[in-house]
Amino acid sequence: MSETITSLVEYGYIILFVYSLGGGMVAILAAGVLSAGGHFNLSLCIVLAFVANTLGSTLLFILGKYYKKDLMPYFKKHRRKLALAQMKIKQYGVFLLLLQKFIYGLKTFIPMAAGFAKFNFLKFLIINTLASLLWAVVLGYAGFAFGAIITPFMDTLGTYSYLIPLFLLVLIALIWFYLYSFSKKTQ
Fold this sequence. Notes:
This protein is mostly helical. The protein contains 8 helices and no strands. The protein has helices spanning about 1-20, 25-35, 40-65, 70, 80-100, 110-115, 120-155, 165-185. The longest helix is centred in the C-terminal third of the chain and has 37 residues, at about 120-155. It is elongated. About 30% of the residues are buried.
């Protein structure tokens, strides 16, 4: 188990940055938990997730705005959802761009749809930057708080080392199931 944590610590910041380019919700939460255990620097994790998420969403917006014709063949099955997203962006713009950061599954779709809808780039950049900052801070500290709660439990569980991988698998499965079911309700 200590080898796994050592590997995570060694490459964790890079993994967090790359994963946050496209979404990163699970990564920033995990980084917060590991920060509570003293393995990561929480401030650095928040900054990396913020920068990567801002950059990733901005790139998706640019793709949607300037390469719509090239991307549309990939969205043949999702044309109805895309049209609905464009309509909602025109209707709820700022609020939707802030909210989408916290809804699993929409983080990569909404910026591209905003580009398709010809949303103003400067306005998108400002809203996206603020939303990414809020997202990184809230989820980073939520992960940290959860880590502070779970660390004593993990220390106790550490005496039974064979149960730790099982516990982590169950925890990951529960988080994945929750996020998957939540994203199904919002579509």
